[in-house]
Design brief:
about 1000 residues, five-stranded antiparallel β-sheet, binds flavin-adenine dinucleotide, binds iron/sulfur cluster
């Protein structure tokens, strides 16, 4: 039995006092000193892990004022505060051992859009893609780009002065900041915008900090002009944060925002921003150019700038290969054809053109292509290219590129690509030479790495692979960084080219030299006691106060190495999370993490859950407990043996005895087990896997709720209760039993069993069971046309008609359907962590399926989630090759010649709402549905959707009902109730169809039923 984890790193009393006082001051947001929140926000995407004392989530600007005022009171002057947005920093920018002030949970509203004057006013926690989605109907967009655009916030972008692809044309975030509303330590709110000379004079006479800061900056500008000019490099990605070189802008106006942008929260909280927005270019084209060496692509990019594109990005073969292995490749494969007679692609230049005049744009593209054709195959030149027109298609390529950045973290083995020198910038003309020197440094240390870059801006992205759990390898962070800093100096560039300084601020004094004391004066004017994100960029000149050091901050590796290698290996699906935050995707029509979207609580995200498990494993290790051995004990011992202790522990829990496992449990119970993380996380973090393992151990110590037993045994009970559908339905659906199920058992809206049995329906159609005898009796030609349906409990018993419709469809198409005898698949057992029983179910099924497979007749399943269990969850528990059970569409798309290639004129347009597991773990199968519909003369559109909120039995659990509905309304509800499209929607998942029925009283058909209806209609014509 795992021990109780009562000993955690408790919040310091000063911080508890601070939080309590804040509560009493009328603070309206959330105050979370709990360990789960602290653990989840102790990491970003960097190699570091720093445990904060608590997390506070302000609701409005007044809350920020309350925080800033209180922090200046004498008793709280050692309280440290770090603002946080999406937490996607790569160098510990938002990490702190003080309080995290997370503005992303509540302060995420778009306040005003002014399309005529082309600006927008937003709160600091608005996500960049969220903003662009809101601007799209106006034909506008917020131009600064970054790979993390679906989760990074405007506050974070301003504070790191984010930029990326297209920066040569569009500049950086700061170039689009019109004014900022910031909250300063002490509680001042200041609206900063460029000031004319007379306005500056007024500002300088303001009392307090406002006047002092304006006077100081003006003085520094006046007195240090020469030094500033000599120190600040003249790069497209100019040196950001405390940007003394731009205290006055090009029109001669004083601009405080040059100091605030890129300040990494070390000066002020950004509450609101007014931003300049631009018209979306009407026409765009992307030329994808292929090279046989990365160096050639880099060097050629320089000369290709002469063809005046909007941007050029270079990616190497490693990055490209990672994308090829991911579901994202499915969306772009046509744009990167590789002929057999061509060299292997080692580098790619993505060259984008945008413009308002189509003919002009096409002319530019054609001239570039002519040039590429003319030099094709020459030494150092490209050997082929493709052209993509239109922003919708081009965005797919950029989405692939963005995702590939995350995929860089996903290599096998212990050495994982980590950021610490990942965003150097040098003048573009020096880039190719710089990269060669950079590669030599990495090669000399025998390190693996992938590279891509914004070559037009001279920015290189590279993440060397290190095993940070190995103390010796961790030391390389210092060695390599020092060498790269030297190289950036040699090539007149910067270590901090794009992602900001964070922990790497230690190089600031050396870089700024004599100017550094001026930075310290600025910091001291805003934050005299070093409370705002201390240790980043500059410190006030106080004895003993220092900047952070790259090897002076605790790393995740140091944390993880406390867990034994065996345990790490078992839980690698949690251990490998690198915090890149792709699971915080804001888009409601994207499958990635419904529990995060439904709650906006980071604890309820894949990253949150992975972080909690890592800490839980570490704390267990501290107590000498081995979770792998514990799981073995649980599986080998009788359920009764630990019962008295479980009862005692459960009573203790009811009395409020603290156990960190309860916090982990709460986070796990919010997970829908939809498996979107498994398919979509670039690192393939698999929450359902470690959640199941956790639940097994948790319920080895505490009693399980009754509903778990009911849900776990559902598949086993179905064959019995289905013999009595009428009494069962009456029993389950009268008001009394519904109340008992809801309030005593904890389950709601139990579905009704079908009134007729599958057996009867199959018999009426003369469909045989797939028994060895029946298969053996098939003639070779019959066998060639046969297929075996592997039943699942939900479709067979609750939607029997669908199975019969499948039988009718396949019969009409000339196939011979056989139905495998029903066997519980075990998925509900896995979801609830009944691992021993699940293992047994997996083994039983595999034995039957292997025997059926040996006959040579293909096996198919109808429900995506249940069918994919045979290839995913089973893998862990069954040795040897698993039997191949295909999704219906995977098999049928290989039999297209059987489908009447119909008269297209009769075709209709259908829209598919796919199941989350299917679209994230079997993405190509959606195209297969399309090919089937096309073969039948129909059009099929795959709609982008989030999760339906049901996911197996999640939505049937009383505590989840509200959340299930919230999730449904985020995406599915909108689509199902959209009058323009709701006549021809279909859904592949049993759960999804039952959720639509429950929430909107609509019955969506399965594609099988639509295809059958089409055939029936044809037959009648
Ligand atoms: C895979 C990957 C790819 C990336 N690609 C790019 C890229 O292409 N271009 C790029 O520029 N960056 C990139 N980054 C870095 C990162 O995404 C950016 O720095 C981003 O701007 C951070 O935004 P955030 O909301 O996550 O901020 P956080 O990481 O939460 O915070 C960043 C800094 O801003 C401060 N801050 C946040 N909000 C506020 C506020 N309201 N008030 C005051 N201070 C605040 C924090 O204290 C911290 O110092 C990448 C990161 C990853 C993981
Ligand atoms: S769970 Fe995956 S997507 Fe989320 S932060 Fe971890 S690695 Fe990134
Ligand atoms: S399984 Fe679904 S709900 Fe659970 S963490 Fe993964 S994406 Fe989120």
């Amino acid at each position: 039995m795992i021990p109780r984890i009562a000993e955690i790193n408790a919040t310091q009393s000063l911080y508890l006092d601070f939080i309590e006082t804040l509560k009493r001051s009328g603070f309206e947001g959330d105050l979370n000193p709990d360990y789960a929140n602290r653990v989840v926000l102790s990491t970003d995407n960097s190699i570091y892990q720093v445990l904060p004392q608590g997390v506070i989530y302000p609701k409005r600007t007044e809350d920020l004022v309350r925080i800033a005022k209180l922090a200046e009171e004498e008793r709280f002057q050692s309280v440290a505060l770090s603002a946080r947005g999406g937490g996607t920093g790569t160098n510990g920018q938002s990490l702190t051992d003080g309080l995290v002030v997370d503005v992303s949970r509540h302060m995420n509203r778009i306040l005003e859009i002014n399309p005529d004057e082309r600006w927008v006013r937003v709160q600091g926690g608005v996500v960049k893609d969220q903003l662009n989605a809101a601007l799209k109907p106006y034909g506008l967009f917020f131009a600064p780009e970054l790979s993390t655009s679906n989760r990074a916030t405007i506050g974070g972008m301003i504070n790191t002065d984010a930029s990326g692809q297209g920066s040569v044309l569009y500049g950086k975030t700061r170039d689009h900041v019109l004014d900022l509303t910031s909250v300063w330590l002490g509680g001042d709110i200041w609206h900063s915008a460029p000031l004319e000379a007379s306005e500056l004079e007024v500002a300088k006479t303001q009392p307090g900090k406002v006047g002092e800061i304006h006077r100081l900056l003006d003085e520094i500008h006046r007195d240090q002009a020469e030094l500033i000019d000599a120190c600040f490099p003249k790069l497209n990605r100019c040196l950001t944060g405390y940007d003394l070189a731009h205290i006055y802008d090009e029109s001669g106006r004083f601009n405080l925002n040059s100091i605030l942008c890129g300040a990494e929260g070390s000066l002020a909280f950004i509450a609101e921003a007014r931003l300049n927005v631009l018209p979306i270019p009407t026409y765009s084209a992307l030329v994808n150019v292929k090279y046989d060496s990365f160096e050639s692509s880099l060097r050629d990019a320089k000369s290709l700038m002469e063809w005046q594109p909007t941007s050029i990005e270079t990616i190497d073969s490693k990055v490209l290969n990672l994308a090829m292995g991911d579901i994202v490749w499915d969306t772009v494969r046509d744009y990167f054809p590789q002929r057999d007679d061509e060299p292997v692609i080692q580098g790619i230049n993505l060259i984008e053109y945008t413009g308002e005049d189509e003919a002009e744009l096409k002319g530019k593209v054609e001239r570039l292509c002519q040039h590429l054709d003319a030099v094709s195959g020459q030494a150092g030149k490209s050997f082929g290219h493709s052209v993509v027109y239109g922003s919708a298609e081009i965005n797919k390529v950029w989405a692939m590129r963005k995702k590939a950045v995350g995929l860089l973290g996903n290599t096998q083995g212990q050495k994982r690509p980590v950021p610490f020198v990942e965003d150097t910038a040098v003048p573009p003309e020096n880039l190719a030479d710089f990269i060669m020197a950079f590669r030599k440094v990495l090669d000399d240390h025998g390190l693996q790495y992938g590279m891509f870059g914004h070559v037009d801006a001279g920015v290189l992205h590279v993440r060397p692979a290190l095993d940070m759990k190995d103390a010796e390898q961790e030391k390389l962070v210092r060695t390599i960084t020092d060498e790269v800093v030297r190289l950036t100096r040699q090539y007149k560039g910067l270590l901090w080219g794009e992602h900001g300084k964070g922990v790497r601020s230690e190089y600031a004094p050396e870089f700024f030299g004599e100017l550094y004391p001026q930075l310290q004066r600025i910091k001291a004017a805003f934050d005299p006691r070093n409370q705002m994100n201390p240790g980043k960029i500059a410190t006030p000149a106080i004895e003993g106060v220092e900047l952070l050091k790259i090897d002076g901050v605790p790393t995740r590796g140091r944390h993880d190495r406390q867990i034994s290698a065996v345990v790490r290996e078992q839980y690698d699906s949690a251990m490998n999370c690198n915090g890149n935050g792709a699971c915080f995707n804001y888009d409601p029509n994207d499958a990635m993490c419904p529990s995060w979207k439904g709650t906006r609580e980071r604890v309820h995200s894949p990253k949150g859950r992975a972080s909690l498990i890592r800490e839980w494993l570490r704390l267990l290790a501290e107590q000498g407990s081995d979770p792998v051995a514990e799981a073995g004990h649980i599986r080998s011992r009788s359920w009764l043996s630990g019962l008295p202790t479980k009862v005692k522990n459960t009573l203790g829990r009811r009395r409020g005895e603290y156990d960190f496992s309860h916090e982990v449990h709460e986070a796990m119970m919010g997970c829908l087990a939809c498996k979107s993380c498994v398919g979509q996380c670039p690192i393939k973090v698999n929450v359902p896997d470690f959640r199941a393992r956790f639940l097994e151990l948790y319920y080895g110590r505490y009693l399980r709720p009754v509903k778990d037993y009911l849900v776990g045994s559902l598949e086993y009970m179905m064959p019995v209760v289905a013999r009595f559908p009428a009494p069962y339905n009456l029993l389950m659906n009268n008001p009394f039993s519904r109340a008992v199920m809801k309030h005593v058992v904890g389950l709601v809206d139990s579905p009704q069993i079908c009134r007729f049995s599958l057996k009867q329906g199959l018999k009426a159609r003369a469909i045989d069971w797939a028994t060895p005898e029946v298969i053996a009796a098939l003639s070779p030609s019959q066998k060639a046309r046969s297929v075996i349906l592997v039943q699942d409990a939900f479709t067979s018993y609750f939607e029997t008609q669908l199975v019969l419709d499948l039988a009718d469809l396949l019969t009409r198409l000339g196939f011979n359907l056989l139905v495998a005898p029903f066997k519980p698949n075990g998925k509900p057992l896995h979801v609830h962590g009944f691992m021993q029983k699940f293992e047994q179910a997996a083994k039983d099924n595999v034995a039957m399926l292997r025997a059926l497979e040996a006959s040579g007749v293909p096996l198919i399943g109808l429900d995506p989630s249940m069918t994919l269990t045979y290839r995913q969850e089973y893998r862990e528990f069954v040795s040897g090759e698993l039997p191949k059970v295909q999704l219906l569409q995977e098999w049928l798309s290989g039999e297209l010649e059987q489908l009447n290639l119909a008269d297209k004129a009769q075709g209709g347009t259908y829209r598919l709402l796919a199941h989350c597991t299917e679209k994230t773990s079997a993405a190509p199968s959606l195209r297969q549905w399309q090919s089937i519909f096309t073969a039948m003369g129909q059009e099929l559109e795959i709609l982008s959707t989030g999760c339906c909120g049901m996911s197996g039995t999640f939505g049937h659990e009383r505590e989840n009902l509200r959340r299930s509905e919230d999730i449904y309304r985020l995406s599915w509800g909108e689509i199902v109730n959209n009058k323009l499209i709701n006549g021809n929607l279909m859904a592949t998942g049993y759960s999804c169809r039952s959720q639509v029925k429950r929430m909107d009283r609509q019955q969506l058909p399965h594609p099988v039923q639509v295809l059958l209806a089409i055939l029936s209609q044809r037959a009648r014509q």
